[in-house]
Structures are given as C-alpha cells and as structure tokens.
What we know:
By secondary structure, the chain is an alpha/beta fold.
Amino acid sequence: MLTLIKQAECYSPKRLGKQDVLIAGTKIIAIEADINLDTNVACEVIDGSDLIVAPGFVDSLVHISGGGGEAGFASRTPEMNLTDATIAGITTVVGALGTDDVSRTHSDLIAKAKGLKQEGLNAFCHTGSYHLPAKTLGESISHDIMYVDEVIGLGEVAISDHRGRQITAQQLAEVAAESRTAGLLSGKRGTVSIHVGSGKAHVNLLHDVANNTDVPLSQFYPTHMNRNAELLTAGIEFCRAGGTIDFTTSTTEYDLANGELAAAEALAYCLDKGVNVAQLTMSSDGHASLPIYNEQNELVGFEVGTELSLLSSFQQAVKQFNVPIEKALSAITINPARILGLNKGELKQNRDADVVLLRQSDLTVHSVWCNGKKMIEDSQIVANGFFNSAN
C-alpha cells in the first residue's frame, strides 16, 4: 500500500512549509508541494492540513532490557515494551547497560534489541556499561562493535559519579580509541556514551583525554548534563571546545526542586547562550532507575525513567520555553542520529519511512510509522509487541 500525507506542515526537521509526503513500502519516495497519483494501487490518503509531519524521534539512551536498582534486587527496573516508544513518537532507540552489569548482561541487552527490531522498531545498543574494564558480549569492545550489527559504540561509561570506578584519563583514552577504531573498521561511529554524575569534576576527564591524546572530544557523548547549573555551565564550555551534550528528560520532582534543570529549560538556555543547536540533544533515559540521593550520597527515593518524557520535553521546549519547532525537533531526531552515526532522524526522499504526525494545536502524537509500518493511528496503538496488548 501507498500512503500519501497531504498538505501537512513539514519539518525535515528543517521547516519546509506545506508539503505532501508519499510513503511506499519501507521508504519515503517523494516530498513535494503537491503530489497527484494516477494508479490502481491501493493508497491511503491522509489529510494533513492540521498536522505536522516530522521524522520519527531518535532516543539515544534507553535501558531497553531494564536497569539495575539502587534499592536492592527488588528494585531492578522492568524492560521496555515496543509501545512505550511508539506512543511517544519514538522510532529509534539506543539501549545500554548502566550501574548493573552483573545481573544485567549484554546477552540480554542485544537479544532485547533484536526482539524490538523483529517487532518493527529500529533498535541499537552499546557494549560496556558504567564500569571499566568494560564488560562485553564477545572477547573485546572491538569484537562487539565490528561483528554485532546492533552494537554501535561503547557506554554508558560513568565519570564524576560515586557509583563509577573512578577511572583515569588513560583508561578512558584507551577504550575510546578502541571504540573509535572498531567503528572505522566496520562503518560505524564508535561513539562513547558518557554518564556524567554530580561530582565536582564534571567533564574534566573528557577534556584531559582530548588535550593529552589523539582522541577527539567529538568521540564522547556526555549525557545527564542538566543535573545542575554548574554542570550545565561546564557543558556549554564543552560545546565551545567542539563537543556535543545530551539532556535527560526523565526526572523527579525531588531532583527538580534540588537544582536539576528540566531538559527543555536546559535546551532553551544553551540556545540563548549561543550554543549551536547541532551540539544539543535530549534523550529519555527510559526504564532507567532514577535513584534520589541526598548530599551525603544516601538513597532517599527511587523512580523509573519513561520514554514518554521525550515527547513531553519536546512539547515543553516549544510551548513553555519558546524553542522553535525545528530546533526542538533537531535535538531529538537528526542530531542524536548524526552523533551516533545512524542514517535516521530526517525526512528525505529514499530515506526509511520513520515518520510521526503531530497535531499542530498541541503537538500530541497523531500517527507513527516505523520503516513504513503504521504503529500509531489517531493516537491509538495499531501495532503491538509480542506480549503487550492494545491499551
């Protein structure tokens, strides 16, 4: 079947104005001002006059197989379901292990990514975890990146965090160089995802590596950079030195009340300070454990991240903080895709048909296609995962 979206406000994520978008099979085959078809082939025509058509969202950090729980074994978080992503407009996820790389394994992580792909989602993952030496599926970081299709990089390696291994610049440089080289050999980016905690060193370790070795700053992709104002300031300096930073959309009321900035606010603040939007992204940290620590690093609360927070933060950026739609979209589509080396996040002829329709009135999700397969229609789930039923 062909699908023709007529006269929607089109963002590629660059604003293109009113356009028609034609989907055939798994691809976008045309984006034009006016498409008229003369064919006997079945074609669904969608009136997009009150809608925005945009790339499916790229969520660059999701704990797709569940995360460890800092409140003990009973607090290990559940795995993500297909519809957790699709109802939020997400068509591409990148999974990772975090604090727990003992009860959570790469075998399970990669199997989950393969399962999500079987259900129709674009799913990738990182090898490694918070800790170094890096745990891997195969014999090395290089092996995983080069021989496992779903593995695109390393991470999320923890710095400035009491739960990390307190690694040195030399240790980080070595694994970053290995990830980079493996990426070059396999046509991948080999990005190193960096979990940044609330420690006072911020991202100094990344600067040390870039200043004293041949590993460029652009090899690192630090996330959680909206933890507090001081870290955000360090993040702006990181961008000015040539890096890119990511803001986490899942949060807690406690953290917001104790210095964390909402991802949408952090995005708007950086843009106001002159940071190039291409250096800024947002990710959900979906299904991660969100432990709440006091100043003595004592656990005082616990919540779980949600993929839906990515959509909510996009809406908040536009409606509350006046970020232009194309810039807010760039932060959750083409920017993370480019940083991770994925051919995703852009509406373009002959690209994969990862498409989201948003209502112009309130930016809620109307419909979602992933590789041409309709996942959401008129805000209702039409494609379910193997174990989750329609809701």
